[in-house]
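Interim report, section 4.2 (structural modelling).
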Amino acid sequence: AQSVTQPDIHITVSEGASLELRCNYSYGATPYLFWYVQSPGQGLQLLLKYFSGDTLVQGIKGFEAEFKRSQSSFNLRKPSVHWSDAAEYFCAVGVRNNDMRFGAGTRLTVKP
Amino acid sequence: DAGITQSPRHKVTETGTPVTLRCHQTENHRYMYWYRQDPGHGLRLIHYSYGVKDTDKGEVSDGYSVSRSKTEDFLLTLESATSSQTSVYFCAISETQGSEQYFGPGTRLTVT
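Predicted structure of the assembly:
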């Protein structure tokens, strides 16, 4: 069955520290991969996407993600977290001509 | 930001009453989606549309119906609201199925 797993429900990091949010997927076909961010009371905003090509993709707000086919992973990273990065992050997987599936989300808390 | 609006933004209704949520887009995207967001579940697809009068069921379609009479509008109807349908509902749009989706601000629905 197709699935998207975000193993960490909640992560706390100190401001200025590095961040890595994990995402694993199970899909039969080569997927499109996305990360979204949701601030409280807001809709989801697209951070970055991977369709093909270079497996390291850059997004907005200083985020990047790396696609590793052998591990079925698409982890999100940021070298230095800012207090404004506190939000919920969703990994999503799409397959051409099919539905997009979302992970359950990882809530990020940033300590001063 | 993509031109997507949802109305109403908040609604409280009683069990057994019908409820209609509206999504309006100004991007002329072919695909439109309705999701519900609940803690621990991420986003789950209710229904989607791939053109005027063309709709299909998603993962959690029971108790919901949709209609799309114009490219720009996608309506979600709860024929007889139940407490289990208390949730935050998001509309999204995309140019093709499987590609990145852009989300509206959400509607918080409470069924008492």
